[in-house]
Amino acid sequence: MELQQLRYLVAVAETGNFTRAAERCFVTQPSLSQQIINLETELGHKLFHRLGRRAVPTETGEMFIGRARRILFEVETAAKEIQDSPSQERRITVGATPSIMPYWLPPLILEATGRFPGLVINTLENFHAPLLNAVVDGEVDLALISMPVDDHRVAAEVLFREPLLLVVAEGHPLASKPEVTAHDLADETFVLLGHSSSLASQIQRFCGDHDFEPRSGHHCAQIRTVKSLVAVGAGISILPKSARTSVDPVSLVYRKLSGRAPYREIALVRHLQRYQSHGANQFITLLRENVRALDAGKRETGGKAGK
C-alpha cells in the first residue's frame, strides 16, 4: 500500500468521478483507476460502486477513506514539522473572505516582509464555507473569517468586533436623514455580495430580526463592485467599517444605523490537530499586534464611527 494510492482514493471520494480525480492528481485516468483496483485487490474489498460516471464509496470504502484522510494528514503534518526550521524559508498560506482580504492581508504581508525576511505568505481569497473546508483539509494554515464558526475540528479565536455601516449614494434620501433605522431600509434595493458570502448572510439575519426580507437587486463577487453600484444609485448596501477606504468613490456616504445596529466578529481559525509552524506563529503574532493597535486607536478616539 502506497501513500499515492491513498491520495488517489481520497481524490475519487471528493470528486465522485475517476476522471476528475485523475485531473486533480495530474495522472491519466487509466493509471489512477488501476491504482484503485490494486488497492481493492490488496484489501480484498471493493471501495467504490461504479455507477456509470459516478463513483460512490461502499460501506467499507467510507470507513477506509476516513482512515486514509487521517493517515495523509499525519504524514503531511510530520513532514511540515521536520521541514520547519528557522534557518529555512517559512511558507504559509492564509485564507480570508472578500470582505477581509483586501483590507487586512496586504498591509500584514508588507509588514511581515520587513520583520520576518524568511517568511513567505501565500493567500487564498474565498467565501466562509469554502475557507472553513480549506482549513479542515489542510489547504490553508490559517483563515480570517467571520463568526459563527461551527466545526469541532477547528479553533476559532475572536480577534475583534466591528460595526457594519449603511452605504448609500450622496443624493440618496437616507444620506441626509438625521437618524436611520433598520425599518428605513425595508423598501430599498440592496447591492450584496454573493449568496455564499457570510456578510450577505449577516445582512439577511439583521433584516430578518427587524421583520423584513432585503430586496436584492444585485449580487456581486467583490466589495469594489458593490461600492461602484451603490455610488451610481443602483441600490444601498451594508459593509464593514474596515471596508471604508480613502480611494472609495467620492459619492459614497457611510451611515451608522441607530438602534440594534449590525456588527460582525472576525476570528482567526486554525485546525486543532495541525502542526502550527514557526511561520504561522510569526504571522499570528503580527496579526494580534495589529489588532491591539487598532483597539488602542479606538480607545483614543472614543470608539466613534462617525457618518
TrEMBL record:
Transmembrane segments: none annotated. The keyword Transcription regulation applies. The keyword Transcription regulation applies. Residues 1-58 form the HTH lysR-type domain. Keywords: DNA-binding, Transcription, Transcription regulation. InterPro entries: LysR_HTH_N (IPR000847), LysR_subst-bd (IPR005119), WH-like_DNA-bd_sf (IPR036388), WH_DNA-bd_sf (IPR036390). Pfam families: HTH_1, LysR_substrate. One of its GO terms (molecular function) is DNA binding. It comes from the Bacteria. One of its GO terms (cellular component) is protein-DNA complex. PANTHER family: HTH-TYPE TRANSCRIPTIONAL REGULATOR CYNR, TRANSCRIPTIONAL DUAL REGULATOR HCAR-RELATED. Belongs to the LysR transcriptional regulatory family. This is HTH lysR-type domain-containing protein. It comes from Termitidicoccus mucosus.
